[in-house]
Amino acid sequence: MGSLIKTVSLWKSYRGGGTEAYALRDVNINIERGDYLAIVGPSGAGKTTLLNILGGLDIATKGRVFFEGKDISGWREEKISLWRNRSIGFVFQFYHLIEELTVLENIMLPSLLCKDTKTSFKETRKLLKYLSVDDKSHYFPSQLSGGEKQKVAIARALVNEPAIVFCDEPTGNLDGVSSEKVITLLEALNTDKGKTIVIVTHNIELAQRASRVVNIKNGRIDKV
């Protein structure tokens, strides 16, 4: 399928109180197009830090990140922001929906930043129907259940047709029934739509249903 994102000797450290703490240590990982990858490990192991660096939300202390063979490590903020908006989708545990916007407006927001209103409206309508929340398009987030909020967050992540979707504990704030719906949805996006999915999770069932699992401990990849 070909490499989509690859890291070379990735390190991330933080300084404070005269000491240096390492969140990532010499991380080498390759994500291929079409992967469904779960990143697991104990709290504080570096999972979210790795996800944020892969998605351009954070910068490594040293090491390199390649996207489709291009070294994006030294890109300036303006360029990395444009790349992130067009190529990366994010789904978070706590949804991060804008309460003052409707479901339709929340989903359309990333594509409006690309100034493509006509395409974004059409794509949003398709996503609403695919995710079975088309009857909620004019609702506000406060009117939705947790599972519905996460579906809206997934739709927002998909609206720009990203190359890869990063999910940080996507079922962590959901009950069992809603969790299963989200897990099934992510699987369908991978198998039916060919989306590359990378999930950080404590949910063992969710991890086991991925096609590949990476264990991270003390900032190091334990097994790929």
User: Structural class of the secondary elements?
Assistant: alpha/beta
Rounded to the nearest angstrom, the distance between the terminal CA atoms is 17 Å
Overall mean pLDDT stands at 90
Number of domains: 1
Characterise the protein shown here.
The protein is α/β, with parallel strands linked by helices and 224 residues long. It is 34% helix and 29% strand. The chain has a single domain, classed as P-loop containing nucleotide triphosphate hydrolases (Rossmann fold), CATH 3.40.50. The protein has helices at 47-54, 77-87, 103-112, 117-130, 146-158, 176-191, 204-208; strands spanning 3-16, 19-27, 30-32, 36-40, 62-67, 70-71, 88-92, 164-168, 196-200, 212-217, 220-223. The strands form two sheets. The protein has a six-stranded mixed β-sheet, sandwiched between helices. Helix 3 (103-112) crosses helix 4, helix 3 (103-112) packs parallel to helix 5 (146-158) and helix 5 (146-158) runs parallel beside helix 6. It is globular, with a radius of gyration of 17 Å. The mean pLDDT is 90.
